[in-house]
Amino acid sequence: MITAVVGRTFLNAYNNKYKKELSPKEFFIDEYFELFYNHPKYLQWITNSPFVQMKSGQKFILTQSERI
User: Fold this and answer.
1) Which of 1, 46, 47, 48 lies 20 to 30 Å (CA to CA) from residue 36?
2) Same domain as 28, residue 54
3) Residue 43 and residue 37 in contact, taking contact as beta carbons nearer than 8 Å
4) What is the pLDDT of residue 36?
């Protein structure tokens, strides 16, 4: 519950600062994903996710289609 309150507060501040009307989903897809994940050497490491748990023989750097 605390995370949701912090997230809403952050998103409201972000929307006010940049004069946008993004929903949480739009913010994640348009801003957060592009910044943190849409690069071969992604910035955020999420434990127990497909980003970390590569398939057998899969190379460490993900392609754009694999990241999406």
Assistant:
1) 1
2) no
3) yes
4) 83
